[in-house]
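TL;DR need structure tokens for one chain.
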Amino acid sequence: MTSPDTLDRLADVRPAGAIDELRRRRPVTRDQLQASYDALFAPVDDSEFPVAERTLVAAFATRVTADDATAAYYAGLAREADAARAETVLAEASAAATAGPFGTYVEAGLQDENSDGRRYEPPTAVRETLGERLAAAIAHAHLLTARPREAGSAALDRLLEAGWSVDGIVTLSQLISFLAFQQRVAAGLRVLAQAAPAPTEEVPA
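>> reply
TL;DR here they are.
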């Protein structure tokens, strides 16, 4: 059985419409994107990073980036998976939302590109509500989303100290990267859909 196409849902792609036709010109790309979603949110083994936590991180990362259909979709998944912690995660994401990316380069010759912006560190009350593991995950999600150039060994050490395994960290990073791509593509398709000419109706002879 074929999985429903998540990107079509996020971008409100109409069957047989112009954007649907555009996407179907690249069936391999379409299938690979859905396969990535399925691997992250319906994995064979989620022991290192439970699906419920994945939806909470997804809700945070997408809402930090934008208040759009993608963020709303993952907010819904998070509420279904863990309603109590979802409300805390979503409130933190709204408060920590930023345009980004910001950060400081360490490479020589790139310092002129440095910029400062919002940083995020979960307060004590949030850590107590979410637990150290999830709190560390959303802090890392904010880092990769808003300040990716500052992500380094120190950030990974903080995740290890919070109880994350190496495999879990790899999946967390893959999740955040996938979400950033998916959210940008969905936003772009929505813009294209708005610009596409409306279908013309055939007038009976």
